[in-house]
Structures are given as C-alpha cells and as structure tokens.
Amino acid sequence: MKIVRTVQELRENVRAARAGGAEHVGLVPTMGALHEGHISLVAAARRRSGLTVMSIFVNPTQFTEASDLDAYPRQEAADAALAEAAGVDIVFAPEASELYPEGFATTVHVGGPLTQTLEAAGRGPAHFDGVATVVSKLLLAVGADAAYFGQKDAQQLLVVRRMVADLGIPAEIVACPTVRDADGLAKSSRNVRLRDDERARALAIPRSLEAVEAALALGETRSEALHARAATVLAAAGIEPEYLAFVDASSLAPVTEVASPVLCAIAARVGTVRLIDNTLLTLPRAGGEN
Ligand code: PAF
C-alpha cells in the first residue's frame, strides 16, 4: 500500500494502475479514525475495483465548530495499518494546503431543500458546502469510477448524489449499510469520545429507532405517533434530540405519514459528543408477498 500526499503523486499512481490493467477505480473518502464502518466501505469498493483508493483528510471546511475540528480524532499511523489490512491500494493523505492552497476561492454549493434541513439546521449551511467542495475535489483528483459512502450519513449521501449529477462528474455514488456495534450503536469516529456512562445512554438512539420500526410493523404509520415513541425512549435516557425527523427519503421533505420510503433521522448530543443515526422506513407489504 502506498501513502501519497499530493494530487500529482496520486494521479501518477492511478494512471500507472490503469495502464497496468486496473479498469475500475474505487474511492473511499474518509476523515480517518477508521472503524468497521469504513472497512465495510473498503470491502464494497474492493468487490468492484481493480484499484481502491482511500482518502484520509480531516476537512476543515465542513466543520462549523472549531472545537469539533480540534477534538476530531487523528491517528494516521493506526489508520494506515487498518487501511492496508483491509486491502486499500493507495492512501491519499494530503495536508490542508494541498487541497486548499493559498488563494483558494471556490465553493461547491448544493442548493435547495437538501441542504436546508436536518444537519444544515444544526451545524449551519456551510457544513454541506465543505462536504460538496472536498468530495468533488477528491473525485476529480482520483478520477474515480465509483465512491462509497455510509448510509449513516444519509443526508450527505443525497447531497453528494445531487452534486455529482449536477456537475456531471462521471462517478457512481454507492451507498453502503450502517455498521453497528453488537449492542446497536452505529459506528462513528466520534464514539471514542464517549465516556462509559455516556456510551450506555447513547444506546437509546438505536433503541428509539427500533421502537419506531416496531410500531410501524404493528401498523402505526402516523409520523406524530412514531415520533412520540422514539422521543419517549430518548427521554428515558435523558437525551433531548437536536432533531428527530420523519422525512421523505429522497427529498428530505417532512412527512406526516409513512407511505413511500421515509427516513427517520436523529441527531443528539450525549455529553459533549454529537451523534447521528437513522433508519429507512418502508411499509410492510400487504400479505408479505415479494
Ligand atoms: O463522511 C465523512 O467522513 C466526510 O464527510 C467525507 C465524505 C470524507 C468528506 O470529508
């Protein structure tokens, strides 16, 4: 596995791999602090790609709180070892000045409802500008045929899909399922910052999503009633969500009833750590037919 720091080195290596027969190049964009969620993205990339590139870059432009950027875990040596064991071919780990050199003045802004709700409300609209800008730069730098994203960041996935379609970037955006610990907590680089008692309380987040799924399975389709189920579970753990939303899974418009695929999405602070999670709700088919 190679670690490269510059876009030029990256391009040279990708070009050489393509010349050597790698037809399909997959990109797994990360901010490091790798966990099984990232490794599952690598596995998905490797099933398709002759060359798997992972970017490790804590992107400053997507952080709206300086304290969150400072506290974001950085562990490049451990990440490189995990990436190599997972079968990554190239790690692209640039300095911030490589992606944002002096004079950098361009922002990729995805407009419309996708970037006005949920995470944008909590973290500020600049968050998705930072994500869209860095992901477009990474896709162009790698010349990737496909890039792999986790469903845990469901809104990010929709924003990236919109951006790639609108700019005509010829990369397929592949969604991969959320990976969870055995107790249900969604894997996140932020989990390491939870104290033991906070981690135990954080379990109310997946439990609340399970409560919603269970109520839906019993026939409750009204968002308000489903919201109450989840809120009760969260409140019992002393968690006041930043948002607990039932939105259309494609447009993110609020829904009052679960009919078409609906995203139930949660953001909540447990202690000082901000966590997000979601589940995709679809109506059980009448009669259980396929
Ligand atoms: O999901 C992330 O880790 C980041 O938002 C991404 C996609 C690597 C862009 O910095």
The ligands found in this model are: pantoate
Write out the strand line-up for the largest beta sheet, numbering strands in chain order.
Answer: 1-4-3-2-5-6
Instruction: Supply the CATH architecture of the largest domain.
Output: 3-Layer(aba) Sandwich
Rg, nearest Å? 20 Å
Q: Judging from the principal axes of the Cα atoms, what is the shape?
A: globular
- Please give the alpha-carbon distance between the first and last residues: 44 Å
CATH class call of the largest domain:
Alpha Beta
Output mean pLDDT.
Answer: 96
Compute the number of strand runs: 9
Question: What is the number of independent domains?
Answer: 2
What pattern of helices and strands is seen along the backbone? EHEHEHHEHHHEHEHHHEEE
Essential attributes:
290 residues; six-stranded parallel sheet; binds pantoate; 11 helices; 41% helix; alpha/beta; Rossmann fold; Pantoate--beta-alanine Ligase, Chain: A,domain 2; three-stranded antiparallel sheet
Descriptive report:
α7 (126-142) packs across α8 (154-167). The protein has helices at residues 7-19, 36-48, 66-71, 76-86, 96-99, 119-123, 126-142, 154-167, 196-202, 204-217, 223-236, and strands spanning 2-4, 25-30, 51-56, 90-92, 146-150, 172-176, 241-248, 262-270, 273-281. It has 2 domains: 2-176, Rossmann fold; 189-279, Pantoate--beta-alanine Ligase, Chain: A,domain 2, CATH 3.30.1300. It is α/β, with parallel strands linked by helices and 290 residues long. The model has no long low-confidence stretch (mean pLDDT 96). Bound molecules: pantoate. Pantoate binds next to β2 and α7.
